Amino acid sequence: MNTKDLKDAVNGINMRDEMKKEVVRNVMKQTGKKRKGMKTFRWQKMAAAAVIVIAAGGVIGFPVRAFVNSYVQERMEEMSKEEKEVIVDAIDHMQVEADSLSREYTENEKERRQALYQQYVQGVFPESELPLVDSEKEAEQYELCYLRATSKFYLPERELTDEELLEIIDFTLKGNYTITQRYEEEYAEEIAKTKEQTDEEIKAIVEEGGITQQQAEEIATKYLLNLYNVTGQGLKFDCNYKGADDEFTGVGEENYLACWQDIVNHDNYFICISAHDGRLIGLMYSGEKIPEDGIKAEEAAEKISVLHAKAADLIKKDRKETYQKEYIFYEKYDDDTTTECVKFIFEKEDGSVYTVEYGWNGMLSYYGEDDLSDYHDGIGRTRFIGNQGKRVESVFKQF
Length: 399
Hints:
Blueprint: H1 3-10, H2 17-31, H3 43-56, E1 66-67, H4 70-77, H5 81-92, E2 100-101, H6 107-120, E3 132-133, H7 136-139, E4 145-147, E5 152-154, H8 162-186, H9 188-207, H10 213-228, E6 236-242, E7 255-262, E8 267-274, E9 280-286, H11 297-319, E10 325-333, E11 341-347, E12 353-359, E13 364-370, H12 372-377, E14 382-385, E15 390-398
Parallel strand pairs: 2-5, 3-4
Antiparallel strand pairs: 1-6, 4-5, 6-7, 7-8, 8-9, 9-13, 10-11, 10-15, 11-12, 12-13, 14-15
Helix pairs in contact: 1-2, 1-3, 2-3, 5-8, 6-8
């Protein structure tokens, strides 16, 4: 998801221009890295819409359910008015669209950050607050601090301590919570009206034999656990009802879109459930658990059969249907390396298809209904990647 995609999506929302800018800026902070390479067709817009709902605190939906953990929620609610004002002021004076680091985290720091986040959601909080500074000269006085004007975390050249990582985690979550709360306060009337209208639509769906939002959440949570081994504890959560004509999701039927965010580690899970019969319409993961770089084409050839078997097993257990044709789709550069994901497409006799996409490391990144024509259009297509001048070629073939 890149900044242009988000700006295009946000332009369709009825809000002031300055608020649109803030949504884009906040979303880019939350989503972490940009996905490049292979296109995820129908779900790009859905994922962008989901993150915008979370970031904007209900501008196009209703309030975010906040953190699925009492310790974190209590920590956020205990913030003083003065502390919130400091955080809001820092975000209001951002001059860029995403936080940056003075250096990249080491692999060890990433692993410890994930472990410390699990401790954080169980009530292990930092002893001190992350220092906030207003100039690079002031930043030189600290080993670790956050420069408000440039939205940059200044990290020491040495490895971060556990305390320092906890301070970064704490600041990140407090900032996200504070901005979400401000949106909910400023758009309280809109949110209330939207919720009232949504409740009426859900009531009508249920009376016709559909499922409630709570049932959809339970179904989505089972998929989250079964496919990702994630319980949702400690993650920011939201579930919104979407109409059949919703311009963002575009799935053509009433649905519930459940979203879980690990704001600290940049993991985002989106699961879409039919409001009519509770079936899975699709799911998507974006985040750092899928390496941004691809692999050598020779290595990809070795992994394809293993990942295909994994995809076929998922389809067999979940869909319980027979597919007459199976395809593979991925992209490779002219230096004989691939982009980061591979798709397996399963086609039924009626022409409908289901797609399963994995990172080459086996992480499930997308699963859902798709359109085969999108892949046919890409056969033999080549394109160039940004300023790198790298040529990318589509590989699409039947098994």
